[in-house]
Specification:
Layout lengths: L7 H12 L2 E2 H14 L13 H4 L1 H17 L7 E5 L5 H11 L6 E5 L3 H10 L4 E3 L11 E6 L8 E6 L2 E10 L2 E10 L16 E4 L1 H17 L1 E10 L9 E4 L2 E3 L9 E3 L2 E2 H10 L3 E7 H7 L2 H11 L4 H12 L4 H4 E7 L10
Length: 350
């Protein structure tokens, strides 16, 4: 397990003192690399909780969606289940258990960099194969790919309209605090033309890392066939403004205050990612809210069945369901984007 003796804040302070401000992208990339390297951030004792940890229903419905796509596409084998950032392996365990009831027993591939989480995943899904990135995932046979709360942790760039035009948003150190400042290099060419005359102070976010992942995923689906679900909090129409935030012990903290010690995330721009997928010859099935998607897949019926089987847990089952699909909880903020290879069927729920 990796252990760092020098706080990342100290490293950043020295770097900025010697070379000047660093980009938001650099700050977020290094912070999350340090944060995820040697800890389990999930659950009551961590910093946040994800949908698979809230209820088994989430993973089960994902597994049934994948099985349905695979069956209607002709049950091609070999077939590979691929998960980006699989957390503790909970989603994969529940999804694979549900899919196996319909004959889908794929090879299992996890794209993961955290040593601490790999140990947990091994205990939960011992048959999995681990990869540092998608390049070593099998290049033959359809991929059934899932990414749940993966894209939001990838580093973003921020561009801000300053007095002299567009500049990259940077991180400086003032009086022992990290603060956002405008860089000194013109960045107008990197801003969409329709936004270049936006008011001073306007912020535009992009995620080159998320774009690169989608480019690879869509290319694989176009070549190998298969389907993908990407689930995250974000927006399905272009928007402006900073969405960078940090979570520590289930509470929001100032985004730049605890590098390497808090989970840094930003909203996912699903509209931009859908355009990338389609440009690669991949079918965009649609983007919808998590609440609508899970309702369409039958979560309310599944909750009723679980409560009937274990009536003593009825309140907990329906409370978990509400957390997943409620408009004021995860149901509206979280989006689900579906992708498929050419000639694969339309996906349920979109």
């Amino acid at each position: 397990m990796t252990r760092h003796t020098e706080p990342l804040a100290t490293v950043f302070e020295r770097l900025i003192a010697n070379y000047g401000p660093i980009s938001i992208q650099h700050f977020m990339d290094e912070s999350n690399a340090r944060y995820y390297a040697d800890r389990d951030p999930l659950g009551a004792g961590g910093d946040f909780i994800t949908a698979p940890e809230i209820s088994q229903m989430f993973g089960e419905l994902i597994g049934l969606w994948l099985a349905d796509m695979w069956i209607r596409a002709g049950r091609e084998t070999p077939v590979h289940y691929v998960e980006l950032g699989p957390g503790r392996g909970t989603l994969a365990r529940d999804a694979l258990r549900a899919a196996a009831r319909y004959g889908l027993e794929p090879g299992v591939h996890f794209v993961e960099s955290s040593t601490a989480l790999k140990d947990l995943q091994l205990a939960t899904v011992p048959q999995a194969h681990w990869h540092a990135d998608l390049s070593t995932v099998p290049a033959y046979g359809p991929l059934l790919l899932v990414g749940n709360e993966f894209l939001d942790a990838l580093p973003i760039r921020q561009l801000v309209r300053a007095g002299g035009g567009w500049r990259e948003r940077m991180v400086a150190c003032e009086d022992g605090r990290f603060v956002a400042v405008a860089g000194d290099k013109p960045m107008d060419a990197a801003v969409p033309e329709d936004l270049r005359e936006a008011p001073e102070g306007t912020i535009v976010e992009t995620s080159p890392a998320a774009a690169a992942i989608l480019y690879e995923v869509a290319g694989r689906l176009a070549e190998q066939g298969g389907a993908a679900l990407l689930i995250d909090y974000g927006h399905d129409h272009p928007r402006i403004g900073s969405t960078l935030q940090a979570l520590r012990e289930h509470q929001k903290v100032e985004a730049l205050s605890m590098p390497g010690e808090a989970d840094l995330t930003a909203h996912v721009d699903f509209a931009a990612l859908a355009a990338i997928a389609q440009a690669r010859g991949c079918t965009w099935l649609g983007t919808t809210t998590q609440g609508r998607f899970l309702r369409a897949l039958g979560i309310e019926t599944r909750a009723e069945n679980l409560a009937t089987f274990a009536p003593e847990h009825r309140e907990a089952v329906f409370s978990a369901m509400e957390r997943l699909i409620g408009e004021g909880q995860m149901g509206a903020l979280f989006k689900v984007m579906g992708l498929a290879g050419p000639n694969w069927p339309e996906g349920a729920g979109f």
